[in-house]
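Troubleshooting log. The previous run stalled partway through. Resubmitting the same two chains, unchanged.
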Amino acid sequence: MSNDPAGEASNARRSGVKPPVRPLSPHLQIWRWHVTMLGSILSRVTGIALYVGAFAVVAWLVALALGGTWYECFVAYAASPLGLLVWLGFSASGFYHLAAGVRHTIWDLGAGLTPPKANLLTHLSIWFAVIATVAFWAWLFLSGKVVL
Amino acid sequence: MSDFQTPAQQIGPSKKTGAGTWKIERLTSVLLVPLTLWALFGVTQFAGGGYEAATAWLREPLNAGLLLLTLAISLWHMVLGMNVVIEDYVHGTLGRLLLLLNALAGWALFIAGAGAIAAVFLGHDFGV
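Second attempt completed without errors. Output:
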């Protein structure tokens, strides 16, 4: 919201000096779409999804602690088609956020910051999430641990 | 161009808690890589086994300990992440209120989750 991260306007107000007029940084509408933008947005969206999912995980723990009757009740919802869809979204968000976190750590170390490498890392993190989610659920269904 | 440069004395590391928060965000992020992979593996160990399989799994000391650690670090990471989202989009009093609610949600989830892990691990029966 503020175009004044260094707080110059308020400093200038106090000292009575007019702040310099600075150029605005280009905003969303001016950028060509690129995959690192999608990667960043997905990272935030999946983070928020995981936040919501944490309530479901804690509900699972509390149901387990309350005993068998409560647990069966929780599982009845959690293992319903809608419940499984929620867990599918939760695990997909987890796999993506995990890969995005690794990608971000690589960038934080100062590596992979050229556009081709940054794009490649972002593509890899998205594909990792897709493949890991499909593999995880395929295994859960094929081993009979989860049935629809 | 120099007109548009921020004066050097106005930039530099945060004098408050900024750098510490940055470090905790990275530290929790790196710790969560092995912990979440372990948790997913854990899910495959009791999925479909009902109440008995889930309690048996959580009564293993290693599982209870690692799950408690995963819960605590996840919640810490999650609250810090949501703080950034709130700070980006919501300003003023409402923003401050949401930051407070976020912290409270984190603590509430930790107390409920850690209490539940401890109860299952110690075999406490709530009789409900």
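Takeaways: The first helix of chain A runs from residue 8 to 15. The interface with chain B takes residues 1, 6-8, 11, 20, 22-23, 44, 47-48, 50-51, 54-55, 57-58, 61-62, 64-72, 75, 91, 94, 98, 101-102, 104-105, 108, 136, 139-140, 143-147 of chain A (CB under 8 Å).
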